[in-house]
Amino acid sequence: MTTDWETVIGLEVHVQLATESKLFCGCSTQFGDVPNTNVCPVCLGLPGALPVTNKNAVALAIRASLSLGCEVHQVSEFARKNYFYPDLPKGYQISQFDRPLATGGGLRIDSPERGSVNIRLIRLHLEEDAGKSLHDRYEALTAIDYNRTGIPLAEIVTEPDLRTPREARMALDQLKQIIQYVDVSDCSMD
């Protein structure tokens, strides 16, 4: 029995927004600082700590949305996404789902196989990053650095409009170019 398979690819891309402070607190987003020094009761989820949304992060996410042709919604809301990982001190991540910041929009690439391809975007929403597990600090142990906890991210989700790894790479390159051009993120993998 022969089965013909078609490759179908959708992307979920996390873009770290170019802010000096985290999404819901004033802690620094500086990369490479001593582990666990850019933390506070808010990003650690300690009792009684109340998050306040970083307006600059919202403005950058709106800029990214508009540059991608998205519809920016007048009302969006955050929710808790519960999961239990060692690098997530609160036991939940503040993210958007039911009412994201923006929907629609898209990218266009010139695929060698299919010509001009429109990659539709489903959504662009805000969420906070988790901490970072460090597997190379101690032999046979994992350390946790909570400095990344609360870093503002724009999550960009595409429809499954891509058909080859080459197209996926082209779409990511196009997205990176746009995001960097509008000064939303430096797109550094660090």
Question: How would you explain this protein's 3D organization?
Answer:
The chain is globular. Strands 1, 2, 5, 6, 7 and 10 form a 6-stranded antiparallel beta sheet that branches. A two-stranded antiparallel sheet has the order 3-4. The model has no long low-confidence stretch (mean pLDDT 95). By secondary structure, the protein is an alpha+beta fold. Helix content is 18%, strand content 29%. It has helices at residues 41-44, 55-67, 165-181, and strands spanning 12-16, 71-72, 79-82, 92-95, 102-103, 106-111, 115-128, 132-138, 141-145, 152-158.
Sum up the overall morphology in one term.
globular
Q: Give the low-confidence spans.
A: none
CA-based gyration radius: 18 Å
Total count of strands: 10
**Terminal-residue CA separation:** 46 Å
Class inferred from helices and paired strands = alpha+beta
Order of helices and strands: EHHEEEEEEEEEH
Secondary-structure blueprint:
Layout: E1 12-16, H1 41-44, H2 55-67, E2 71-72, E3 79-82, E4 92-95, E5 102-103, E6 106-111, E7 115-128, E8 132-138, E9 141-145, E10 152-158, H3 165-181
Antiparallel strand pairs: 1-10, 2-5, 3-4, 5-7, 6-7, 7-10, 8-9
Features:
globular; 190 residues; alpha+beta; 6-stranded antiparallel beta sheet
